[in-house]
Structures are given as structure tokens and as C-alpha cells.
Amino acid sequence: MSELTDTRWLRPCAGHWREGTGPVLLCLPHAGGGALSYAGWDRHPLGGFEPVAVCLPGREDRFAEDPVSGWTALVSAIADSLTPLAHRPLAVFGHSMGALTGYELLRELARRKRPAPLLLAVSAHRAPQEMPTAAGPPRSPRELLDYVRRLDDGGTAELLDDPEWRDLVLRPLGADLRLHDTYRSSAGPPGQPPLATPFVVLTGEDDPTVSDRTYAGWSALTHAVSARRVYPGGHFYLREQRDRLLTELGRDLENAMRGELR
Predict the structure, then answer these.
(1) Cα–Cα distance for residue pair 36/11, rounded to 1 Å
(2) 3-state secondary structure the chain
(3) Measured torsion, CA atoms of residues 33, 22, 245, 222, in degrees rounded to the nearest 10
(4) Angle at Cα 99 formed by Cα 253 and Cα 26, nearest 5°?
(5) Of 53, 12, 7, residue with least CA distance to 29
(6) In angstroms, rounded to a whole number, what is the distance separating the alpha carbons of residues 219 and 236?
(7) Angle formed by the axes of helices 97-111 and 71-81, to 10°?
(8) Cα(68)–Cα(9) distance, rounded to whole angstroms?
């Protein structure tokens, strides 16, 4: 796996790459998040899939780099980073903004005529069709702080009282939310076919960012089967529910590997 040792984009959750050609679970972060959001996922079986997190520019050891400012550039760069893994089966998990990134990544892989991922797990985000059709003005620093405290009480929010941490959090978060707020779905143009990948739609029962339409919206974007799972908790339900989530996700991945979700 020497071709992957210098990559800036992909970080195996175990800290090193597995040998061989086994399947990979690509994990995409929420707005402002990094690869460390998925720390510890390698300690779960995950159906034999190797969890690999994406680290975006502007955070963690890429903090000095400018954050990505456009969707085309973002998904193209991630797709490029996956080229050395083209011989390995792929599944994708995206939380919050990462769910949109995962969907657009699948579209990009299809445009490149790459094999369809075995599974797309979308977590804590409404379907692309539910996104606003017009972007509002950029969020002020106060609005960013309020956003974090509303959705992430007890997580990143507790760091915001420290001025140094606040700057580290708000820089990538502000850039990601500007990108998020300007999202325009590739599902929109007429004639865009649904994907062939099965979806699993995961939400927290108290998450204010999703709606009753969320599952149906995601389901409309795939020809394959889709499943829904609701967990106790809010937008970041996956922290307190991690063991249950990863146990159930592991079963989904095993079924996807056997072709039983199609």
C-alpha cells in the first residue's frame, strides 16, 4: 500500500493500512469535522470493511491549507484520492454534510464509470431535494457559534469557551457551512437517473435538521433497496449510540458484500 502512504486525503482509522484487497468503508466528516471524528471505528468488526476517514483541507494537520470552496473541486479531489483503492470494494458513510458529500461522490464515481459502491449510509441530513433552492447570506461568527451550540451540545460546543479552540473550530466550520449553504443537488437536472447503490438512512429521533420527508427523499435517489434506522438522540446521536450504530452498520456491510441489499 505504499502508493497511499503520502496521501493527504485518506486516513485509515487504525493508523496504518491493512494489507490485501479487502473492502473499504470511506467515512466522510460533518461540517467542520475531520478524520478524528471516526477515531476508534477500527475497533469494531464492520463486516470486515476497513474504515478510512477523509481529512479535508483546513483542519487537523491540514489546517494551514485553504478549505475547499466548491462542490466540484471537493468531490473530484476525493474521487482522485480513491484511485489507488479502485481494486477494493467500497462502501461510503457520511454524517451530516458528509451525507451530501457521499451522494455527490457517488455521482462523480458514476461519471468516471467507476464501480458503484456497495452501500451508501447517509446520517443526520435531509435528502438533497429538501435543500433550499437559494443560498442565504454567509453566516456571521455569532451565527456559527449558535449553530454549533444548538446541534453539538456536549461535543465541539464545549470547546467554544476557549478562544484558541474557538478559532480552530470556526475556520473550517465557517468554510464548510458556506459550501453547504450553496449546495445545489445533482439530483435536480431532468433525466438524471437514480443510483444503483443501496442506501441506509440513519437519523436521531430528536434531530431538528431532518424531517418526515427525509427517508422518502433519499429513497427516491436509488434504484436499489433502502432502509431506515432511527436512534435515540439528536444530530450527533452517533456518539452515544456508537456501539449499536456500528454493530448494525456492520451487518448492513456484510449483506451488501453478499449482494443481499440489492
Answers:
(1) 9
(2) CHHHCCCCCEEECCCCCCCCCCCEEEEECCCCCCHHHHCCHHHCCHHHCEEEEECCCCCHHHCCCCCCCCHHHHHHHHHHHCHHHCCCCEEEEEECHHHHHHHHHHHHHHHCCCCCCCCEEEECCCCHHHCCCCCCCCCCHHHHHHHHHHHCCCCHHHHHHCHHHHHHHHHHHHHHHHHHHCCCCCCCCCCCCCECCCEEEEEECCCCCCCCCHHHHHHCCECCCEEEEEECCCCCHHHHCHHHHHHHHHHHHHHHHCCCCC
(3) 80
(4) 45
(5) 53
(6) 22
(7) 70
(8) 12
Residue with cell 449510509: 121
Contact 152, 173 (CB under 8 A): no
Residue the block writes with cell 456492520: 250
Phi, psi of 120 (to 5 degrees): -120, 115
User: Average pLDDT, whole number, for the chain?
Assistant: 88
Report yes or no on whether pTM surpasses 0.85: yes
Per residue in 115-142, pLDDT tens? Answer: 999 999 999 999 998 887 766 677 777 7
- Contact indicator for 231, 205 with CB cutoff of 8 Å: yes
Please report the sign of the dihedral spanned by the C-alpha atoms of residue 239, residue 43, residue 197, residue 10: positive
Show the cell assigned to 94.
457520511
Q: Rounded to an integer, what distance in angstroms lies between the CA atom of residue 95 and that of residue 100? A: 9
Query: What is the per-residue pLDDT across 31-85, written as a single tens digit (0 to 9) for each?
Result: 989 999 999 999 999 999 999 999 999 999 999 999 998 999 999 999 999 999 9
Are 261 and 226 within 8 A, CB to CB? no
Here the cell at position 71 is 462542490
**Cα(240)–Cα(196) distance, integer angstroms:** 32
